[in-house]
Amino acid sequence: MAELMADATRGDGMYATHATESALDSGVSSPVADPENEMRENPSSAPARIMSKTVKNSWSDHGRHALAGDEKEGVRSGMISPRALQTPIHIKGASSLTGNATPKPPGTQHTDSNTPVSIISDLAAKQQQSRVASPTVQEHPLVRTGSVSATIAPPSRAPARTATPRLVSHTPLVADWSGKSDHSRSATEYEHLAASAKLGTGSQVEMARPKAELVKAAVAKATQKHNEPSRPRPMRNASTRSMTHDDNSQRYANIARRTSKYESCIDMVEEPQHAQESMPFDFHPNPGANYGLINAVSSTKELDNESVLYIGTLGIEMDWIPTPTRQEIDAVSKSQEQMLPVWLKDADYVMSYHTYCKQVLWPTFHYTLPTGKGLENESEAWNAYVETNRRFAERIAAEYRDGDVVWVHDYHLLLVPEMLRKLIPRAPIGFFLHIAFPSSEIFRCLSRREPLLLGMLGSDLIGFQTHNFCRHFRQTANRILQAETTARGVHMKNSFVTVASYPIGIDVKMLQKRQEHPDVTEWVEKLRERFAGMKVIVGRDKLDWIKGVREKLIAYEVFLERHPEWVGRVVLVQVALATVRENSEVVAVSDLVARINHKHGSLTYQPIVFLHVQEITFSQYLALLTMADAFLIMSLREGMNLTSHEYIVAQQRRQRPLILSEFTGTYSALRACIGVNPFNAQQVAKAIHHALMMPEEEMVRRWRDLHHTVMSQSSHHWVASILSQLERVHLQQPYMETMFKPELEIAQMQSEWRASKSCLVLLDLEGTLMREDLCYVHGNGFEPPHAIHRLLQRLVADHRMYVYLLSSHSRTDLEKLAMEVPYLGLVAEDGCYVRHCMAGTRCDWTSLVDGFDMQWRKPVREILDYFTERTPGSWIEERSTTIAWYFGEGMSEADAIWARRQASEVQGLISDSLGERFSLRIVNGQTYFVIMPKNVGRSTAVQYMLALDNMGQLPTRHAPTNKGRFEFILHIGRDERLIALLNDLDLPFAPRTCTTAESDSIVSSIATSQLRPYEQVMDALEDIIDFHLRDLKWGGPATMDI
């Protein structure tokens, strides 16, 4: 068993560790170790399987801020791992086969002519190639003095700048590596692999040779190898594919994984400028690959290896790669590795990821304002962000085939869905945001808020971690875009975007299997011996302010001060994962740890074991989870923290409590935990004491509830539920219908019209029959044009015709039409009241809102009064049931912009404060909106009419009644819900639905035909009247028409 070394560099007892890059520091150390954290810090990287060629290495920090070797900590060696760009796109159906490869094990000294050479592609790192540190023997903080230890070999080179120098570890991803699986390989072998071989299979002497000599030798050797015959690989079949696209956190290291066979990055030897031919290349595991998503997809039985294609970027700089090599990489990776790279400019990547994503989007999405540095370069960074998203969209569109499903991931690619929708309008597109989504008050601070929202709304389905994030998104879309929202999603002009929560989970079975490994058992015993007689609290977080490590330590200090009896009897083991960005958190946390250890520690006791520079293996991490007496998570804001899930599974035997911040997405599901406010140190200290003193019965009861949630919320369920829902909602989209909408031809339906004994005609008034000047109506009252009076009078002259006029006007306004057109049916206030066609000129109104709670009207009126006073040119129209607010009519452009903002504000306020309580909905118009009961509308009014008709109870316009059921229905209007209802009716003759929507919205309508409003609608109705008059003149309908 190889032990990690430790070096006590501070007199206060804080351990500054320096060792191999561990899985824990990379965020995930196994197929199940914190897949969500893997989807957090880095943009995605294109994964691939290891090919049967010798592995080479090429590092790049791609703009990562790093400092030179830290002399203060005595650390002078390290290497920046290859950065990983945006990860992929998962598509259902894409096929790809890979031959079994058995490369030489890392660390093996190559003596043949094909020995590869490692190249550091970052210029600053190259300049430091002569800096080599001597190995030092260190003591691991978790192991008592005298335990077995091993010396860690230093890396060959140090980067130009690194605040936390680290050794890159690339362990094999295939189970059969030189005849050994990852479970059979010892920790000593892993340490040797990470400490020497994985920095480059060449020796240190070779790595120190001049660059020109390296290039010459490498090209010659690689070319010789490239020309050797390789094992034939099966061809890719033509089955339907499925894409996944993800863009996630930067990681420095990984460990062996049995199920993760796709992750790799491509390494190349830099080509001389005069070379024009393709260069040799190979694949090897990429530490920045999105293991979490890949393992979640791999755990889904419905998706085999051949049904997934990952689209992402390489883990190296790309500008220097020649076009022939890029083409060859495309061909090989697609056919053999089930991945496809996106070729970005290095400068675009740096500005997009390091500036816009990390300094603008990341802070805002976590409830803080963008950094000053990010705002200084925001315009340039935004252009790079758009370009990055555009290249991804074009790459996906080029690979898309009918039947594919596109799944885009995370905040690095918010614009891709809309871009894809323009390129492939009929594609099913899903988007999942792994981090938190802020309230509209925070999101509105973004200068590019509109394009970011519209980019996301190009999807069919948008997934979030919690219901709160869904609510924030709907409110933001409503307030900023003035889009109509419901509990299910957002109504767009051409689609309906479903918004739902899908909390991510872990692969429980795989984690349980890893926990049974002998290394874990051995480490559990060592840790129990090390902390014998003490309670152990464990924490594992990134050293990012958002993780609340400082708040955790402060609360722990308060606990020790309030309960001095626990000093010497409890220890906090805090594993601190490094981040890809410089921040002051490292110094602040280190100073805090030193202060607490100095204040409460002694020669034989330290209250905090702080693992920051030193990295622990996944077996050690699982051992900590297994033997812990409590687990403490204090995130200040987080989308989902899956470390809590891992702790619950690891506590199968001990069943100890979990202390969880209420600001994590996990808290909404794991309600049996001890929930705390991380900003309340006194409360957290009390929770720690409660966890340590909790009765066994309560601990078991809490754990069982938590375990049930974790088991039901697995990674397999996460993938399957999202993909199945995505396919369903896509089939319901209006753009699934034909893109061409023919004009309504009255002549084509005359035979059906003549043969029907009873016809129902439904006509919208505003926006279809009548062009309304809202300002004039507000000042002078509602007066329908005489032309409409005459048209409707002639239309209802046919005794078979039941004509209903649908309007948002009040009953009082519509009574004026009823007086002029006796047999006209009316629907007032958008479906709240119905007046039937009856014999005579008088008919009572039927209310469809009886029994509805109308107490909402007073608070809504008060809110609207407040905003009306502050919005010039706006006014309120209060009707019997509904209330309308008009704005933006006859205003200047500046005033209209202000009015739209006010309208967005008032809608959000009413929706948040009264919408759910009173079951209200808001119907948006171009310069107005209407507040009304949620379960009432024009479609419900028509349903009411049809129900009466089916029962034979619909009032008739003549006596004695011989109407019979409606055999033909014609609807001309804009209500898509009503159109959908009528399209599904089973009548003797198919209903005719005709939309009068604006030209840019017609394509999204599900109506069977279209007409331009006003004049063209009037002409069509005149044609119907003419057909009736000709029949009256020349006799009944012909035999052929019956």
TrEMBL record:
<dbReference type="GO" id="GO:0003825">
    <property type="term" value="F:alpha,alpha-trehalose-phosphate synthase (UDP-forming) activity"/>
</dbReference>
<dbReference type="Pfam" id="PF00982">
    <property type="entry name" value="Glyco_transf_20"/>
</dbReference>
<feature type="compositionally biased region" description="Low complexity">
    <location>
        <begin position="149"/>
        <end position="166"/>
    </location>
</feature>
<dbReference type="GO" id="GO:0005946">
    <property type="term" value="C:alpha,alpha-trehalose-phosphate synthase complex (UDP-forming)"/>
</dbReference>
<dbReference type="InterPro" id="IPR036412">
    <property type="entry name" value="HAD-like_sf"/>
</dbReference>
<dbReference type="GO" id="GO:0005829">
    <property type="term" value="C:cytosol"/>
</dbReference>
<feature type="region of interest" description="Disordered">
    <location>
        <begin position="1"/>
        <end position="50"/>
    </location>
</feature>
<feature type="region of interest" description="Disordered">
    <location>
        <begin position="222"/>
        <end position="247"/>
    </location>
</feature>
<dbReference type="GO" id="GO:0005992">
    <property type="term" value="P:trehalose biosynthetic process"/>
</dbReference>
<feature type="region of interest" description="Disordered">
    <location>
        <begin position="146"/>
        <end position="167"/>
    </location>
</feature>
<protein>
    <submittedName>
        <fullName>Glycosyltransferase family 20 protein</fullName>
    </submittedName>
</protein>
<dbReference type="InterPro" id="IPR001830">
    <property type="entry name" value="Glyco_trans_20"/>
</dbReference>
<dbReference type="GO" id="GO:0004805">
    <property type="term" value="F:trehalose-phosphatase activity"/>
</dbReference>
<keyword id="KW-0808">Transferase</keyword>
<dbReference type="InterPro" id="IPR003337">
    <property type="entry name" value="Trehalose_PPase"/>
</dbReference>
<feature type="region of interest" description="Disordered">
    <location>
        <begin position="94"/>
        <end position="115"/>
    </location>
</feature>
<dbReference type="Pfam" id="PF02358">
    <property type="entry name" value="Trehalose_PPase"/>
</dbReference>
